[in-house]
Amino acid sequence: MTTTPPAPLLSAQALEVAFPGRRGAATARAVDGVDLDIRPGEIVALVGESGCGKTTLARSLLGLVPPTAGRVTFGGEPLDYAGRALKAYRKRVQLVLQDPSGSLNPRHTVYDAVAEGLRIHGYTGDEGAAVSGALARAGLRPPERFLLRYPHELSGGQRQRVVIAGALVLEPELIVADEPVASLDASVRGEILALLLKLRDELGLSALVVTHDLGLAWNIADRVAVMYLGRIVETGDVEQILTAPRHPYTQALLSVLPEADGEPVILTGEPPDPSKVPSGCRFHARCQVLASGEAERAGVADACRTKDLPVLEGGGRTQVACHWVAAETARAV
Ligand SMILES: Nc1ncnc2c1ncn2[C@@H]1O[C@H](COP(=O)(O)OP(=O)(O)OP(=O)(O)O)[C@@H](O)[C@H]1O
Ligand code: SF4
Ligand SMILES: [Mg+2]
C-alpha cells in the first residue's frame, strides 16, 4: 500500500528572484527557478556555498522579497503581498536569524525582545504568560531568571534561545532558520539543534534550516536540498543524499568534510556569480567530472556545456540535475 504524502505547507514553484544590477551591471539571478516543498512537521535543510542564493530564497519564502517570476504558496494558497495579509502570514511563518548578526537589540531586555512580536501583532492575551511560556519552550528555565536580563548578560547559546523564543511566542507553523548555529561553538550548537528537533516533535513545527554546513543538515534534517547558483541541483532524503551523493557538486561539498573518506575534491574555477550564470549546466566550469574527462567518456560533455537542465520537483523524491548522472543511470538499467 502506498500512502500519499501530506500536502506541502510551504511551497516555492518555479521561483525566481533577480536583482537589477547597479549602473548598467548585469541582473543578478540570485534564485533562478526553484521548486521546493516543506510539509507539515518536516525539517528541510537548504545547503550550498556562500552566495548561492540560500538567504534570498528563504526571504522570498517569507514574503520579504517578492519573486520576479513563479510563486510561493502557503497551505495551497498563493501568498498575498497586501500589507495586512502579509502581516498575518508572517505570524504563521517565522524567521529565526543567527543572533550575533544583531537580531537582538542590546538595549532591550529578554522580556521585551520576546514580547516584541506579540506587540507587533496586537496580541490581546496575557503577554507575560506568553513570554514565559516561549522562553521555557526554548529551554530558558526558569523563565523568570532571564526576563530582565540584557543580551550582553547571556551566553551565545542563551541569546540564540531568546531569538528562538521570540519566534515561538507567536506559535508559528513553520520557522525559517538562516544559519541558526553558525557562530556557536560545537557543544552549544548541538543543544540548539536538539531544541529544534524537540520543537518539531512536540509542536509539530516545520522548519527550513539554511546552512552551508552539511554536518548540521545531517543532524537535523529529514530532507536536504543542495543549491548551486540559484538552483536546486540535488534533493531528497538526507541520509541518501549525504551517504550516496550523485551530483558532482554535492560530492565535492561532502568530500571536504573532515570525516569524509578518499581525496577531497577542491573546486577550481571562479566562485559562482549570479550575474553571469553559465550556459549549459551552471556548474560546468568547475565540475570535476567534466574536467577529468569522465563526462566526455559518457558522451555528455557537449550537453554539460550547452544544454540547461530541468528544474527539479519540489517534493520528497530523490532527484539530481546532471547530464552525466542521467547518462550513467540510463546505462545501468
Ligand atoms: N539586495 C540585493 N541586491 C543585489 N544582489 C543581491 C541582493 N541580495 C543578495 N544579492 C546577491 O544574490 C546572491 C545570493 O545571495 P544570498 O545572500 O542569497 O546568498 P547565500 O547563499 O545566503 O550566501 P551566504 O552563505 O554567504 O549567506 C549573491 O551573489 C548576492 O550578492
Ligand atoms: S551536468 Fe556535466 S558539468 Fe554539470 S555537474 Fe553533471 S557532469 Fe558536471
Ligand atoms: Mg545567507
Describe this structure in words.
- One of its GO terms (molecular function) is ATP hydrolysis activity.
- Keywords: ATP-binding, Nucleotide-binding, Transport.
- This is Oligopeptide/dipeptide ABC transporter, ATPase subunit.
- The chain is an alpha/beta fold and 333 residues long.
- The chain has a single domain, classed as 3-Layer(aba) Sandwich (Rossmann fold), CATH 3.40.50.300.
- 35% of the residues lie in helices and 20% in strands.
- A 7-stranded mixed beta sheet has the order 6-7-8-3-9-10-11, with helices on both faces. Strands 2-1-4-5 form a 4-stranded antiparallel beta sheet, with helices on one face.
- A hairpin with a 2-residue loop joins strand 4 and strand 5.
- Helix 3 crosses helix 4 (127-137), helix 3 (110-120) packs parallel to helix 5 and helix 4 (127-137) crosses helix 5 (156-168).
- It is globular and about 65 Å long.
- The protein binds adenosine-5'-triphosphate, iron/sulfur cluster and magnesium ion.
SSE diagram, text form:
Elements: E1 10-19, E2 28-38, E3 43-47, H1 54-61, E4 69-74, E5 77-78, H2 83-92, E6 93-97, H3 110-120, H4 127-137, H5 156-168, E7 174-178, H6 186-203, E8 206-211, H7 214-220, E9 223-228, E10 231-237, H8 238-243, H9 248-255, H10 288-291, H11 294-297, H12 301-306, E11 319-320, H13 323-332
Parallel strand pairs: 3-8, 3-9, 6-7, 7-8
Antiparallel strand pairs: 1-2, 1-4, 4-5, 9-10, 10-11
Helix pairs in contact: 3-4, 3-5, 4-5, 5-6
The structure holds adenosine-5'-triphosphate, iron/sulfur cluster and magnesium ion.
Domain ABC transporter: 12-254
GO molecular function, one term: ATP binding
Organism: Streptomyces pratensis (strain ATCC 33331 / IAF-45CD)
